[in-house]
Design brief:
This protein has 276 residues and is of the alpha+beta class. It is built from 8 helices and 11 strands. Keywords: Cell membrane, Membrane, Transmembrane, Transmembrane helix.
């Protein structure tokens, strides 16, 4: 079993060395090859080929989940759910947003768009708009929000989106790669007009993020403006958004940064195992 797992891993690693992804026809060839190898019962080779195919299909799926060029810089009305704990600072709040209805049928310029009660976008009156697929996850910023943003909330936003990209500084943080690993297909910001509308909490949205949001709210209510609130959030649920730069500097000097980063995840795993 260990050898089979290593063979699968080797297939995954091989795809990472490709300068470009192969054409779809090679997936068919690989599928036929996998069938022949399975018939011959060469299991180690089979796991290797399956690893290659899985990595290629996964990469193709992720790369296809990008913002269409027609919607670059357009104002788009979206309905969806806050997917994770927001990151708050003095000027803005940043959060991951999951559109409920990913098909935008209005004119790419955004004019004449209307949203129906069930969240389906109506085409503009001229009928010139064609269906455009929104990414499964958006990374949005809302500057000077007038309402609190929490995980699990369902909102109607008018947003201006752009395709994912990052800087090319050698040795610097690869922002585009990080967004790719997080499954983010577009970034953008919330427009102040039309005014964002809070629809309530999505009853169908049950995830670890909602649980973490509940714990965050309870800690904030119990501790108020205590100086230890940010540290307790970081240690218990892995929410380091409130930790100040001065506190991070202390952690770096004392060599305890890793405790803050991973302890929340470990405690969450322990609590889950106890609950089970």
């Amino acid at each position: 079993m260990v050898v089979s797992a290593l063979s699968f891993l080797a297939g995954l690693m091989l795809v990472q060395q490709f300068p470009i992804l192969p054409d779809v026809k090679w997936l068919v060839v690989g599928g036929v090859l996998a069938g022949i190898i399975a018939w011959l019962r060469y299991w180690r080779c089979l796991f290797f080929v399956v690893g290659v195919l899985w990595a290629i299909v996964f990469a193709m799926h992720r790369l296809s989940d990008r913002l269409p060029e027609q919607l670059e810089g357009a104002e788009v009305q979206v309905v969806g759910t806050i997917a994770d704990l927001p990151e708050q600072d003095e000027k803005r709040v940043r959060f991951d947003f999951i559109p409920r209805d990913r098909v935008y049928a209005a004119n790419p310029s955004g004019t004449g768009a209307a949203i129906t009660r069930d969240g389906v976008y109506a085409a503009n009156q001229s009928g010139t708009g064609s269906g455009q697929q929104l990414p499964a996850k958006l990374r949005l910023s809302w500057y000077y929000p007038d309402q609190p943003i929490k995980a699990g909330q369902q909102w109607v936003f008018t947003v201006k989106l752009k395709r994912v990209h990052g800087t090319m500084n050698p040795g610097g943080f690869d922002y585009e790669r990080w967004l790719f690993t997080e499954g983010v297909g577009a970034t953008g910001y919330v427009r102040p007009s039309p005014k964002p509308v809070l629809l309530g909490r999505d009853s169908a949205w049950s995830s670890i993020s909602v649980w973490r949001q509940s714990i965050t709210d309870q800690l904030s209510s119990a501790l108020g403006n205590s100086a230890s609130l940010a540290l307790i959030k970081a240690l218990t649920i892995g929410d380091g958004n409130s930790v100040t730069q001065e506190q991070w500097e202390v952690f770096r000097k004392t060599g305890t940064t890793h405790l803050v980063v991973i302890s929340g995840s470990h405690i969450g795993l322990i609590v889950k195992n106890i609950a089970i």
